[in-house]
């Protein structure tokens, strides 16, 4: 069932309840339901319905949510992008997808009867990009139930209900934040969507009213123990929590639900109480051994998986004939009933100080440096930035030459902060550098990886 139908049901039951609040204003459930229905009729009258990809680039997050749910109600597939992209950038990122309907401003209201369309289970209902605007995003498509059928499980694990106020302090182009906002509305809660991480004074005001927050690990310390905060739960997705963070949150009365997943996989494993990651409901996990390594590749089978990449774009998602899927992440050996210990991310995308850096873009520049046989770029944990860009170079070029090339060929966020050298990079069966394995060895302090000075 489209999430818009949930919004319409909540509007009938609690019409004056606040549904969504953003920098441009707020809407009750009755107002949001009316806006979604009117916008869906507008789309259908323009011939935008089942089978159409709707590229959405609205700056106002409340208007963006309304447009997303209107496209879904009309039977189209909403694709959220970065509102700062110009049309040339949109043309680049949607080229593999084919023709799309572009929406760059709030959808108008069209009067008429209720939109009634019987959704099909096989309908592609959601699409999102796998990385932010610093790299070459891939558009991932999934069926409606791969998100919506997991909503009750998240509600139960985090204790989220219709009386909650859910703070979603990040851009909705990120699937982590888009999922959080849509889940809140499906649940009947209030979604607070500032569209970005709030400034200090604004954050304090948000925390005074919110009961639940969705965020990434390096932002958790920013909300723990804040004076006047009404938070009782934090849903944290992404990298592992820093040591002591959960304990500090607990002392402040904040329950932390941490999870591991990927845009292509959705939820994989969840840590409810600090005892480690265990399969999210409905998920089967295998860690398949890698020859010559103490780590293995994480494979998943579940109802929450995406269908793949729009336009058959290349990406890390792989399937076997038994329905198991991987994005190349690596973990320590695992057996059912044990804790899953993830050691590296397969897609390699680095979140650093609010920017998303795609390693391949950095590697392409650094490979041109004389003396570089090959290079792998990964993210290394950082207490305030989340991660810093780290280059592991095969060969022995001077660090000064590497840094000079980075200054002239890369944006500031893309430039490595840490440099390492290695005699030979480990490789996959296809001969490509094994990025996740390199990241795991670096984290383990492998003596074969030396710091460049």
UniProtKB/TrEMBL annotation:
It holds the Pfam family AMP-binding. GO terms for molecular function: acid-thiol ligase activity. It comes from the Bacteria. Signal peptide: none annotated. Residues 362-432 form the AMP-binding enzyme C-terminal domain. Residues 9-103, 113-310 form the AMP-dependent synthetase/ligase domain. PANTHER family: LONG-CHAIN-FATTY-ACID--COA LIGASE, NONRIBOSOMAL PEPTIDE SYNTHASE PES1 (EUROFUNG)-RELATED. This is Long-chain fatty acid--CoA ligase. The lineage of its organism: Bacteria, Bacillati, Actinomycetota, Actinomycetes, Streptosporangiales.
């Amino acid at each position: 069932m489209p999430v818009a139908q949930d919004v319409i049901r909540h509007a009938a039951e609690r019409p004056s309840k606040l549904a969504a609040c953003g920098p441009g204003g707020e809407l009750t459930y009755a107002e949001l339901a009316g806006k979604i229905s009117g916008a869906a009729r507008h789309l259908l009258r323009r011939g935008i319905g089942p089978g159409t990809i709707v590229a959405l680039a609205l700056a106002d997050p409340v208007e963006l949510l309304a447009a997303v749910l209107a496209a879904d109600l009309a039977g189209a597939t909403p694709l959220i992008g970065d509102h700062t992209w110009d049309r040339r950038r949109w043309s680049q990122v949607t080229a593999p997808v084919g023709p799309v309907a572009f929406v760059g401003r709030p959808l108008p209201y069209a009067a008429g009867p209720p939109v009634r369309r019987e959704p099909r289970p096989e309908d592609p209902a959601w699409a999102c990009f796998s990385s932010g605007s610093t790299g070459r995003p891939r558009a991932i498509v999934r069926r409606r139930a791969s998100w919506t059928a997991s909503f009750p499980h998240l509600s139960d694990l985090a204790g989220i209900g219709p009386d909650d106020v859910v703070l979603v302090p990040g851009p909705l182009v990120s699937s982590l934040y888009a999922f959080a906002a849509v889940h809140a509305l499906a649940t009947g809660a209030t979604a607070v969507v500032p569209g970005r991480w709030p400034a200090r004074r604004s954050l304090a005001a948000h925390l005074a009213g919110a009961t639940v927050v969705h965020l990434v690990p390096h932002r958790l310390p920013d909300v723990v123990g804040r004076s006047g905060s009404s938070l009782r739960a934090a849903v944290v997705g992404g990298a592992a929590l820093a040591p002591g963070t959960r304990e500090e949150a607990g002392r402040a009365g904040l329950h932390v639900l941490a999870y591991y997943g990927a845009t292509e996989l959705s939820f994989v494993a969840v840590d409810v109480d600090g005892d480690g990651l265990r399969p999210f409901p409905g998920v089967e996990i295998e860690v398949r051994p890698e020859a010559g390594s103490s780590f293995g590749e994480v494979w998943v089978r579940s109802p929450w998986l995406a269908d793949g990449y729009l336009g058959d774009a290349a990406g890390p998602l792989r399937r076997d004939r038994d329905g198991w899927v991987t994005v190349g992440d690596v973990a320590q050996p695992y057996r059912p009933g044990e804790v899953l210990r993830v050691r590296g991310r397969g897609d390699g995308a680095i979140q650093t100080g609010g920017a998303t850096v795609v390693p391949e873009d950095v590697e392409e520049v650094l490979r041109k440096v004389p003396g570089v046989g090959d290079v792998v770029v990964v993210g290394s944990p950082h207490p305030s930035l989340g991660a810093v860009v780290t280059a592991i170079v095969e060969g022995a070029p001077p660090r000064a030459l590497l840094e000079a090339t980075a200054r002239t060929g890369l944006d500031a966020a893309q430039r490595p902060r840490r440099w390492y050298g290695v005699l030979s990079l480990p490789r996959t069966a296809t001969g490509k550098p094994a990025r996740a394995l390199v990241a795991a060895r670096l984290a383990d302090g492998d003596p074969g990886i030396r710091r460049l000075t």
